[in-house]
Amino acid sequence: MITEVNKEFEFHQKGKYLVSNKIFLDLVFNNECNYNCKFCIARTKTYSENDYENWKKSLKRTFEIFGEEIDSIIILGGESTIDPHFFDKLEYLDEVTKDKHVFTILTTNGFMLKHENFLQRLLASSVDSINISVMNHNHELNNYLMGANTLSKEELKHIYDEVHAAGKTLRFNTNVARNNLSTVEEMEDYIRYFKGCYDAIKFTPLMKTDMFGTTDDVLEYTHKYVMEKEEIKELFDSLANRHIKKSHNSKVFGLINYGDLTVYGEHIILKYEQVEDMYDLDKVIPTLKIYPNGNLSNEWDYAKNILDDFE
Q1: Cβ distance 27 to 302 under 8 Å?
Q2: Which neighbouring-strand residues pair with 259?
Q3: What pTM, to 2 d.p., does this model score?
Q4: What distance in Å separates the CA atoms of residue 73 and residue 61, rounded to the nearest whole number?
Q5: What domains appear along the chain, each with residue ranges and CATH number?
Q6: Cα-based angle 30, 31, 32 (whole degrees, multiple of 5)
Q7: 202 with 260: CB under 8 angstroms?
Q8: Cβ atoms of residues 70 and 286 within 8 Å
Q9: 186 and 175 in contact (C-beta within 8 Å)?
Q10: pLDDT in tens for each of the 311 residues of the chain?
């Protein structure tokens, strides 16, 4: 299973940029979503237009330029699985990467995976691992936080069994915030409740969304419920001290302080902290993102297109 804690990064010159030798490529399929999560950084005041043909051209060109460096792909939205071109894009991704398999992860709210035909078609694709956002083990609270009628434990278990039978992996992603999993006991309850429904759980602190241009309600929500860095460290350290610490990385790529644990026999990832921008993005490429309009950016800015720098 791929985690964020086992990569070693170096940078080398390519054109005017210092480029990571192991790039995470985010493929933003679309802006639309069928959920209304209160904390979602993708709910912004302006959106990238969808341009499927330009998106394909950019994907091909991106691999022509950075094929040696791209180490893994994360598919994002919006909610990518409701994109009308979802499977078309997966098939084109296969075509572009046919000479080099790149570890591919789908991040989703999971709604479309409860449809058996969709699930089986997904599992027949080259997607290696699936991340499902599941905020809380209390179903009513989970519905409230995600603004939708979310998947039940039984539905999640079925999805996991099918994913496991296909030789792929499933991870749950959840936020830690003042109103969600803010104590060790709540985190342990979450782990125990869903035991047998996943291969790993990743706990990530809720972030303030000032830097992402999110809508006012998301901005207000994140400021209200975000925990301070010291609180997160104390919480995560307390959980780690009660269980088996597998590894800890104090500096990984653009992110710092990841912990890998075993809790009640389950694989747990703790993301201690998201650092603010630590690179001059006019000179450095740590990650890449292709937006629905086809622009390739090395930051969260759909209007920026660095493909122009490699003509």
Answers
A1: no
A2: 248, 270
A3: 0.93
A4: 15
A5: 23-272 (3.20.20.70)
A6: 100
A7: no
A8: no
A9: no
A10: 444 444 567 899 999 999 999 899 999 999 999 999 999 888 888 888 999 999 999 999 999 999 999 999 999 999 999 999 999 999 999 999 988 889 999 999 999 999 999 999 999 999 999 999 999 999 999 999 999 999 999 999 999 999 999 999 999 999 999 999 999 999 999 999 999 999 999 999 998 888 778 899 999 999 999 999 899 999 999 999 999 888 877 655 555 568 899 999 999 999 987 655 677 889 999 899 999 999 999 988 899 999 999 97
Phi, psi for 13 (deg, rounded to 5): -80, 135
- Residue 235: exposed, middle, or buried by beta-carbon count in 10 A (0-12, 13-18, 19+)? buried
Report helix angle 116-123 to 153-165, nearest 10.
Answer: 30
Which residue type, as a one-letter code, is found at position 27? L
Q: Give the Cβ contact number of residue 110 at 10 Å.
A: 24
The H-assigned helical ranges of the chain are: 52-66, 86-96, 116-123, 139-146, 153-165, 184-193, 216-225, 229-241
Give yes or no for a contact between 236 and 255, defined as CB atoms under 8 angstroms apart: no
**208-224: b or e for each residue (b if 16 or more CB lie within 10 Å)?**
ebeebebeeebbebbee
209-210-211 Cα angle (round to 5): 90
Long-range contacts of 256-260 (CB under 8 A, 24+ apart): 257/233, 258/3, 258/4, 258/5, 259/5, 260/3, 260/5
> CA–CA separation, 69 vs 14, rounded Å?
11
